[in-house]
Amino acid sequence: MPIARARRALKESVSGLPREFWWLWTSTLVNRLGAFVATFMTLYLTLDRGYSASYAGLVASLYGLGGVISSIGAGVMTDRLGRRPTLLIAQSSSAVSVAVLGFVQHPVAIAVVATVVGAATNASRPAVQAMMADIVPPKDRVRAFSLNYWAINLGFAISAAAAGFIAEYSYLAGFIGEAVMTLACAIFIYVKLPESRPEQGGPGTADASAQEEQERVSLGTVLRDGRFMGMVGLSFLISLIFMEGFVGLPLAMGAAGFSAADFGLVMALNGGLIVALQIPLTRYIEHRDPRRLLIVSSLLAGYGFGLTAFAGSIAVYALTVCIWTLAEMVNAPTQTGLVVRLSPVHGRGRYQGMYTLSWAAASLVAPVLAGTIMDGLGAAWLWGTCAALGTVAGVGYWGLMRNLPPALTGSEIADAAPVTVPKADGAARSPIAADSPSD
Q1: What's 35's DSSP letter?
Q2: Domains in the chain, start-ordered, CATH in brackets?
Q3: Of the residues 50, 126, 164, 186, which has the maximum number of CB atoms within 10 A of its CB?
Q4: pLDDT, tens only, 291-336
């Protein structure tokens, strides 16, 4: 009986989503199977190249700077050029730059190429999220974002464990492997995914109002959206917690005498837990109050990393990973769904770009902050900072979302006006329910 219930729950979790979503889901999985640079950059620079923690933090920050630079530009490209061209440009550029990073030797060259890698890698995110919002009806978006997040972590769980052992043999092999997988993902998108950007009408057409709406949405529109920008600020704090942890954890484990393979196995637990629990957890949180979910996840993230101050063995490190992984599983789909809910249809690229900027900015700030704290004060101060940031973020979500309009009900979604999205050949495909003003 439990097996039958599990099968039924799995079927309900994956059924009813558009075919295009599953192609996008598969491309996400392929891309994450090749992930190496972001996970092992600090170990590569400190253990393999012999650089200091401060230099490793600087390079990781430049990687984040590249993401900051590309976030807004990629968001605008997503709205203007389309989702598919943006993805192709971003992932092809990422594949080339990652391969180059594996060969450069001079510290300045490493820093420059790492910046390019960060920009290219980050540029695909607004397009992926906007495309997913285009092709998935509002009532299914939290589920779709959770499934996509599940794919990210399935790939991460496999690649982290494998890459840890690859790094023991050759870091260069890891860079080349990521480049090949990213290029394969770019080709896959070109072959399988049609453009999903909502059709733009010209003057005198039935879609003229949609065209006018698109022209009204600018970066200034996003910046003047107080609630959305407040959420971006809180997202930055959450991102800072995770980024500080991801940069500080390999440094702390390396200083304690643990190997790259040990770190890879601990990080694989993060992905493994998400693979095992994300789908059933999504069924639990899908229709619950997002404010409570974001508050709880903020506290779990902060104090989960905070407990790392007391870790001295693989088992204790694993326990802390379990705590902040739960926060990650709740926060990621809830917050992504909220971004789409607050974004106008024809401005999704720009809104997603600004949201992506919060993570990119954290990638810029966190490595320098983590390296400086660890070099000057010690790891315990870093983990205490994470706990403090989680508390501030939890209070912030409580204040920001007190008057958030309710989401659409299932019947209201069914009555919403359709948005027609073109196929790759220019013909219109079946309508998708549009967002209401409150969605």
Answers
A1: -
A2: 16-197+221-404 (1.20.1250.20)
A3: 126
A4: 888 999 999 999 999 988 887 788 888 898 999 999 988 888 888 8
